Amino acid sequence: MIAQLLGLPDTPGVMFFVFAGGGMLYFFLIASIAYYLYFKKFRAHFHPTYELDRKEMKSAITWVIIGIVGNGALMLPIHMLIAKDYSKMYYDVSEHGWAWMFGQVIVLLVFTETLIYWTHYAFHRVPWLWKYVHERHHKYVVPTPYSSLSFNPMDSFLQAVPHHIAAFFFPLHAGVYLTSVLFVTLWAVCIHDRVSFFRWPWLNYTDHHTLHHWYSDFNLGQYFTFWDRLVGTYRSPKIDYEDVPDGIIYRPKSVAPTSTAPTALGGRSANPA
Ligand SMILES: [Zn+2]
Ligand SMILES: [Zn+2]
Prior knowledge:
Shape: globular
Bound molecules: zinc ion
Oligomer: single chain
């Protein structure tokens, strides 16, 4: 698969290197671009109240490295099975036609969205999962691009695994698979940079995830908000929450909050219910 696409041998060592090494290069490239633009060069515009916390930044970057390397190791058996052709991954569009090239994108979105929502929901509801798996990611209450992949490796593995096991459930073109893995990493960085450009309420855009880090138990989706709305874990970023300090959510002048949150919504919750 990815090693094959790059013309490399699909041995465990090479595959680990491609995922851990390639993943690290890709992540630090896009996270650094986002950090440079929003937190340095145009900081006065996007995040005027931001102050670098060196200790937190060091911790965030350390856990990115631990998370990516650990995730690469945990994912290896799945990648080996895919490489040895035990999955339904395919490489030639003509095998399933163009209609399925587009159809599988929708199926993949529904499949990953559903599994990731409920995995994330369990992380926030099951005390030991919270404590031993997910709490690390929530140490960063006000996120930056560098904290987007600051995970316990088991956390990043369990939240990423739907993308990697999809090919065992339905035919998945290698190009679609690779694009989805690259895109979800880019998405992870984007939803942690605290700058939203698209504010479509059914999309789990950046402000939603900023609130997820602030309130902890709300907005658990991946790309969309439909599971949050159905289950009742949705909080709209269009509301002006009194306990969210100014500057945490970047709001251009054209996007004023529509209303003030009723106090019954409650405040921050750092622990699962
Ligand atoms: Zn996050
Ligand atoms: Zn969470």
